[in-house]
Amino acid sequence: MSQTVPPTTTLPDPEVRPKAKHRHFTAEYKKRILDEADACTTSTQRGALVRREGLYSSHLHKWRQQRAQGILDGLTPKKRGVKSDPLALENARLHRENQRLEQQLARAEMIIEVQKKISLLLGLPTEPNLPNAPK
Description:
Blueprint: H1 27-39, H2 43-53, H3 57-69, H4 71-75, H5 86-122
């Protein structure tokens, strides 16, 4: 009586792998790698550097172009997204201030109306009789 052992099949891992993220390189790292690449005398040395750091030759090409434009401009990380417009910011600030003042004015007018109605109910004069008051 020999028992037959069923062959074990390995099921694929059901875990979802995380999505690959873009790598971001600091300005110091870019400068250090470019300095090392410039110190290389042969293409095999540059190839070894690129393989060791896990980079592509296009990285070096792009970083060299950035360095040619200006070290501070080319090697600092660029801020992504919509660029802020100073005129639009000022316009938004003035718009908010205008809304706040309109609400304040509406409250003041409502208070004046209530005061007028109260003075009419109490029989008090509503207009002060001042000699310099416009009529």
